[in-house]
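Bit of a strange request maybe. I'm writing a small parser for structure token strings and I need a real example to test against, not something I typed by hand. Could someone generate the tokens for this chain?
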Amino acid sequence: MPTLHDATGPELTAAELHDILRLRVDVFVVEQKAAYPELDGRDLRPDTRHLWFADSTGVTSYLRVLQDPDGVRRIGRVVTAAAARGQGLAAQLMDAALTVPSEYVLDAQTYVQGFYARYGFVAEGAEYTDDDGIPHIRMRRPPS
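Reply from user aminoacidic:
Good idea to test on real output. This should exercise your parser:
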């Protein structure tokens, strides 16, 4: 069974950051063919919280929580390795991420909108297509 990890940006080791970035690039850039700048300068910030599962093969599932300038927490980069899908890892990460009482926002790929709705997220605005042609919807979860 994978082990849950939780760290802020400065707490990440170089090896952990490498494994996290590898998974994000493998899925978002290679698998989904979305050529975008994965390195956005927010991973090492002290107010960025990283949550992930890892096993002997490396990082198997991951998400991060950012602090937006308006005080809202932004969940992003929710990803699970192809070999680890179907085990409920992303759901466990969402449970862990939402333990801090706050308002949350995320930009969901529309095909997983129902997944986020289970956590109280509600669609906000119209569906949009990102620069790589992937349909998304902004979703918000009010403070708990």
